[in-house]
Amino acid sequence: QGGSARLRQAMAVAQHHDAVTGTSKQHVANDYARQLAAGWERCQVLVSNALASLGGSKEDFVFCNLLNISVCPLTQTASQFQAVLYNPLAWSITWTVRLPVSDWAYHVRSPSGQTVPSEVIDVSAERSKNFHPELIFPASAPPLGFSIYSVTRLPSKTPRFRDCCAVPVAQS
Amino acid sequence: SHTLVIQNEHLRVTFNPNTGLLQEIENLDQGLRLPVSQTFYWYNASTGDFTHPQASGAYIFRPDKTKPFLLSHWVKTRLVKKALVQEVHQNFSAWCSQVVRLYPGQRHVELEWTVGPVPVGDGWGKEIISRFDSQLKTNGRFYTDSNGREILERRRDYRPTWDLNQTEPVAGNYYPVSSRLYITDGQVQLTVLTDRSQGGSSLSDGSLELMVHRRLLLDDNRGVGEALLEPGDEPGVGLVVRGRHLVLLDTVEAAAARHRLQAQREALAPQLVLAPAGKGTPYSPG
Fold first, then answer.
1. Contact criterion met (CB below 8 Å) for B13 and B248
2. Largest alpha-carbon pair distance within chain A?
């Protein structure tokens, strides 16, 4: 069972000036984080239930909370997956989806089954020996609605991005 | 030796070939071109002295000098130019980097910074800022929002309701930035949207700065009773923060419509949910 009450409470607590500006004692900051994480966990169930109800299919929905640091175990291991984009705005949007992946070629299909242009780029840090590919594709979602994109890994290609795009180090 | 440029149908962003730093933003729709540099600096946190014992801490921002230290005179850069994204990766130091990014159709420049862990082994608390410098004649004025609602005019070394005796030239001009900060010369407006509440200011005409991270060694004696260090921070590793600044260059007339809509897109950003393919089972609420 999901619910939004716990996240609502955590968000209410986080309106305190100590939470907004970071002036709390450290153990209080830890508690803010704990409450928000617990609230979001319940909300994930709620969102999953809503998507299952609206989409007519119950899936093992995954919320990758570490996308901002390019970590998502599902997209980095699965050969096929779905990306559901929910738009909370009252007008339609186009958004660039970025997902960490493990290979260099993917096929992305729109909700209508059409091929969507996609690219994989390397986002690894300078001097890093490991490649960190990220899949990029544009996705649209209707007002207050969602769209489902299907992603399939293709037979691997050799990455050539380093050679083609590296530029001389700037020096002064 | 060659100028780095990223460009889409609306914007062109140029980087200095010698330093690798942002050098110019051009709004191609409006024909506006603004030389603007952006880089990171840090203020040395005050530890207080005999006459003014106030130290910089959780509540109090009090640098011990008015001029911040430049983090790096030049950056290592890497250009990624593809059809769906153009990025310049800038490496300022071992603990500060940034990606300047343009997607097709986008009317703002996205600066995604990663800062930390801030080193404090030298015994100096540090407050890190991202600063934009331009030639805009802003007459001591800049604008910050109030919780994403009303935009308020801020004037350097001035308060609208009393005669100010400015004793803190940096901190005394810092204001809360909930979602945006901008400067204008009456014709051109440079706006920076933030993804979180930060402190910001314009300490000289044409300049904008936002504090992105801070790591301090002393408590400011205002009640919290702790320095801004992480738990178990002996000897400590420090936190890494990653955030985004969205930079818009526009005419004054067009700027508000652009930054307000973009701010809504940020505040109500799409939620991405993933699922393994082909494992679904038919479902109906009944």
1. no
2. 60
Which residues, other chains included, contact A154 with Cβ-Cβ below 8 Å and sequence gap of 6+? A103, A105, A106, A107
More confident residue, B146 or B189: B189
The secondary structure of residue B172, as a DSSP letter, is G
Whose structure tokens read 């940020």? B266
* pLDDT value for A172: 40
A120 vs A169: which has the higher pLDDT: A120
Task: Give the integer Cα–Cα distance in Å for A73 and A66.
Answer: 10
Across the range B77-102, mean pLDDT stands at 95
Torsion, Cα of A153, A155, A156, A158 (10° steps): -130
Q: What is the mean pLDDT of residues A97-126?
A: 92
What gap in Å lies between CA A99 and CA A109, rounded to an integer? 15
* pLDDT of B130 above 50: yes
Two tokens, residue A10: 């955590």
Longest dimension (CA), chain B: 74
Note the pLDDT tens digit of each residue in A61-72.
999 999 988 999
Nearest alpha carbon to residue B271 among A27, A37, A4, A84 = A84
- Strands B151-155 and B141-145 turn out to be antiparallel
User: Chain A contacts of B265, Cβ < 8 Å?
Assistant: 89, 93
Q: Are A74 and B274 in contact (CB under 8 A)?
A: yes
| Residue closest to B241 by CA, chosen among B182, B203, B274, B194 | B194
Query: Which of chain B's residues have a Cβ under 8 Å away from the Cβ of A52?
Result: 283
The CA distance from B27 to B88, in Å, is 18
Tell me the average pLDDT across A42-67. 92
DSSP H or E run through B40: strand B32-44
| Nearest-Cα residue of chain B relative to residue A19 | B197
* Other CB atoms within 10 A of residue B19 CB: 19
- The DSSP bridge partners found for residue B222 are none
What 3-state class would DSSP assign to B138? coil
The more confidently predicted of residues B234 and A76 is A76
Query: Which residues are registered as beta bridge partners of A34?
Result: none
| Chain A residues within an 8 Å CB radius of B270 | 85-88, 93, 95, 141
Bin B238: left if φ > 0, else alpha if -120 < ψ < 50, else beta: left
User: How close A59 gets to chain B, by Cα (Å)?
Assistant: 4
The residues near B140 (Cβ < 8 Å, ≥ 6 apart) are B155, B156, B157, B158, B205
Q: State the DSSP H helix or E strand holding residue A145, giving kind and residue range, or none if neither.
A: strand A145-153
**Strand pairing partners for B188?**
B251
